[in-house]
Amino acid sequence: MKFDTLIRNGTVVDGTGSPGRVADLAVQGDRIVSVGEVGASNAARVIDATDLIVAPGFIDIHTHSDVSLMLHPRCESKILQGVTTDVTGNCSFSPFPLSPDRIDLHRDHLLRIGDGVPSLTWHDLDGYAEAVASDPPAFNAAPLAGHGTIRVAVMGVDQREPTTSEIERMKGLLVQSLEQGAFGMSTGLTHVPSAYGSEAEITELVRVVASHDALYATHSRGGSGRPFGGTEEAIRTATAAGARLQSSHAAINHPDHWGRAADMLALIDEARDGGLDVALDVYPYDASSSSLTQYLPQWVQDGGTEAMRARLAEPSVIEQAQQELAAGWFGGIPWLWDRVVFDRTGPGAEWMVGLSIQEAANRSGVTPAALALRVCLDFGNYPRVVLFYRTEEDMMTFLAHPHAVVGSDGSALTLDQGGKRPHPRSFGTFPRIFGRYVREKGVLSLPGAVRKTSGAVAERLRLTDRGYIRPGLAADIVVFDPDTVADRATFQDPAQAPIGIPYVFVNGEIAVDGGDQTDARAGRVLRRDRNQEGTRRGH
Known about the structure:
Elements: E1 5-12, E2 21-28, E3 31-36, E4 45-48, E5 53-56, E6 58-60, H1 68-71, H2 76-79, E7 83-88, H3 103-110, H4 125-133, E8 140-143, E9 145-146, H5 147-155, H6 164-179, E10 184-188, H7 199-211, E11 215-219, H8 229-241, E12 244-247, H9 261-273, E13 278-282, E14 288-291, H10 305-312, H11 315-326, E15 340-344, H12 357-364, H13 368-379, E16 384-387, H14 392-400, E17 404-406, H15 425-440, H16 446-453, H17 455-461, E18 477-480, E19 503-506, E20 509-513, E21 516-517, H18 530-536
Parallel strand pairs: 1-4, 1-5, 6-7, 7-8, 9-10, 10-11, 11-12, 12-13, 13-17
Antiparallel strand pairs: 1-2, 2-3, 5-18, 14-16, 15-16, 18-19, 19-20, 20-21
């Protein structure tokens, strides 16, 4: 029988969590057509996978590749890791739905998650998918609709409660996005303007998500005064709305609470025991990264970047902002300024990249709070920082939880970063899982890690055509060496490809061959299966 590709003698770890078995795998077109013992074949390509793992392509449940996959469609940082699908639209940021009369605010909002923003020539998910298809990426995207983007479309960047009419308009845009195939909705309740949404507002929107049997993913709120108040709010919201909940990038950032991962997980376990479908995702690093503006007082950001600049031009205002900022972030997390490092700044300030805010402030002769405000005043939402505010022990506790899956919180980037130092998670998350936390530390078994990076993620999304090695499913496949797979990306030199991943297939096309990326660009914008939804809901 003729196949396009035959992978022989590999150890197939199928994404279910079951132990691996030596088998052949055949690909025809964009599908897996056979798994087992395949006899004589005149396949166009035969790959000997002896001593290698053959697994489903990794599905990264938490990413910000929404616009970077258009700016960098080779998606090098992800495809070389074996990532074949990125779940986009997280933390309230998505490139749809857009209001034509607020394109500048949308562009400014999206700048928080990318190095740049392409021309926003579309308004809805259908238009975005068409734009992506015109210059296809190397991997797939499974989009969520972002609450922040929806709020910008209806309300701009205003710090206020929505009117009844505005709530209805937001719900209408969310319905449109879900009907066009979005996999759910995300919030980013420390990011403006999503952070301006009250618990009541979010619950109203999550009811819409629940009515479509979609997923609610939340970057939870900070500053509640309770150690895990953001997690408690997320559970209340999902319970009240009857929605499936994904707790994004689980972490403990407050130094006073380091070592209490088990206490946070107890809240999730209690909610599950009570009947809530809740899970979490985690990335394998002890540092986070975000736009610097996320940590400013929320009132400073009211109205968008230009309004912020005008506000901070007033001496009395900037003095108040400095005092509030110096007092802590997210409602009282103390600043450890020497643990907050610039990974990008802006023209003329590149000398700060790689320095902590404390170091840069010392060189500038100002306080760290004053420097942070000045950088945001000069460059708006573009500057980013890496915060070393976590412990590996907490991260490993989260990672080992039976309902945790893996998400990088990174983006599809080029390996040429031109002096910027983005978080290494964009380049190393998945090989780091298998090298450090499977092979070296034994936090996860290999079949368990494959499940957390493929099958379990597909189940969270209700993604029905990939995530497992199974005949009839999409041929998204990664082949790696369990003895050598490792990340090489560091905080000092992040833009480095991993090792030990010789082959990656996306929709049947070979995207990585012998460890080198090919010119294949077989990625697609995936859509939620609404026919499957109707079946589940009894329609």
